[in-house]
Design goal:
The chain is an all-beta fold and about 80 residues long. The protein contains no helices and five strands. A hairpin with a 6-residue loop joins strand 3 and strand 4. The mean pLDDT is about 80. Bound molecules: zinc ion.
Length: about 80
């Protein structure tokens, strides 16, 4: 069953890869096609140490991996279309 073009709010809980600060963020995945097997990746800056964590998570909000992110980018913002 497809759930495309829905607004999906997911809560991501993870520990910063560098300082191990427990973090949780809520992100909205507007318009993304989130299949059970599809992973979504975002970059999140740790407020504690400032390092950017590169998260991969699935449609249920389960964080699959946390890696260092080498390029500084802001959080992806949902497109307005
Ligand atoms: Zn940190």
């Amino acid at each position: 069953m497809r759930r495309d073009t829905m607004d999906v709010n997911v809560i991501l809980a993870f520990a910063c890869y560098r300082c191990e600060e427990p973090l949780s963020i809520t992100t909205q995945c507007r318009g993304l096609v989130l299949d059970e097997e599809q992973l979504v990746s975002i970059a999140v800056a740790c407020p504690q140490c400032g390092q950017v964590n590169y998260l991969s998570f699935d449609a249920s909000g389960q964080v699959r991996s946390v890696r260092p992110y080498t390029c500084i980018r802001v959080l992806p913002t949902p497109s307005a279309n």
